[in-house]
């Protein structure tokens, strides 16, 4: 994906051999190779992807050669341009059992889905910058960032419906396809347990009353997550009288993005001098069979916290909606102990 693409909307589709290797990576049977596209198949592939392939910023901080030498301290942002772009992440994901971030994972997942006959749009979203807060009451209001997140919308020729899927959001990731609808009420579904609920709404980019309104705007889709007091399960239908509030995750337009623009978005997120992803270390995936429980490794340079990454579990039915980490472990931010831990706990291959 280097240089300016001659065919800006060219799409990538995996071969049967590549799709077979991908299924093996997802720990799914090769018999699925002959399955026609359906909501059931999409749901199975999507959930397995989130359980097996982590969102992973480690390429931005560790050049590959550093893993093979003596144990050395890791400096955030030191690799800078090491994150694979788009489907070039295939080998890292499939053969090295590692992960990447959204512009690599979702592009590669899209090429995998196309093998089965899914029609997949690669889109870009605007992330909400006050995650977890109620934008109608919090001082931040509707605080939006730039277009720095790739996501997918998938359908198939025999279906009138299309579904949002996102294999690389990370914590609070919706793990089920959610249908696009123009109904003003939106589409509301529960997640993998009764303490997760999501809503996809067709609307203009929501802004606070005190914010300048754009001169021209077109509607898009906003994905929201429902937050209620710890211990309060979500019960459908969720109405204005239900406990809790909706907090946005991201907003996007249903307009396919050309390859050159994805290269630009990738650069701003991974290799620009103010790239946001170079400021933190994150490796996170759902625990297989954990009904939404997630294991994450997180590190950011904060005074007084030392040079150790925190590994912790969140979510799942046992959390009852709490976002507090449990089963906490600490790993030194050096290549030796991290390599050993990632191979053991996240199944990385070096």
UniProtKB/TrEMBL annotation:
It comes from Mycena venus. InterPro entries: Arylamine_N-AcTrfase, Arylamine_NAT_domain_sf, Papain-like_cys_pep_sf. This is Peptidase-S9 domain-containing protein. Gene3D superfamilies: 3.30.2140.20. GO terms for molecular function: acetyltransferase activity. Belongs to the arylamine N-acetyltransferase family.
